[in-house]
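Quick one: examine this chain and its backbone structure tokens and tell me how the chain folds. Here goes:
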Amino acid sequence: MQNPQIPGPELDDLDLRILEQLQEDSSLTNQDLAARVHASPPTCLRRVRRLVDEGVIDRQVAILSAEKLGSTLTAIVEITLDVQAAESLAAFEQSVLAEPAVLQCYRVSPGPDFVLIAQVKDMPAYHALVHRAFTAQANVRNVRTFFSVHRAKFETRIDVRG
């Protein structure tokens, strides 16, 4: 299970079953989780606490419906900076972390310096985001955006057995 290049905790089959169930529904009570993974509730609770303490479980969240909340425009944004020095990349990254509309931020290579996933209400909200977070910054050379017209798949789960 462990990648020799990335140190991490040893996970056994029970850990993997727990992780699979929590990725499906993290609101399960400890009793229900224990029943689903065929373990005692105390054992299950100890395992979940260990997985949290070791950082395997990063956080537990509710996934909201952007559409039902009126946030219907998904933008995939490529950002290229003028200066790619480590300080410049870190400064841009820090500014993006403060932007609530930006859901994901990846530093990539080759090509643009960053790829962002943003979720906004509509095109005026997107334009405001671009001006506020990207074009107002002196170091941004290019902003290229793709708008989602259909989302065929959206998953948050990681294949813990792969």
The mean pLDDT is 94. Helices lie at 13-24, 30-37, 41-53, 86-97, 123-135. The chain is about 35% helix and 20% strand.
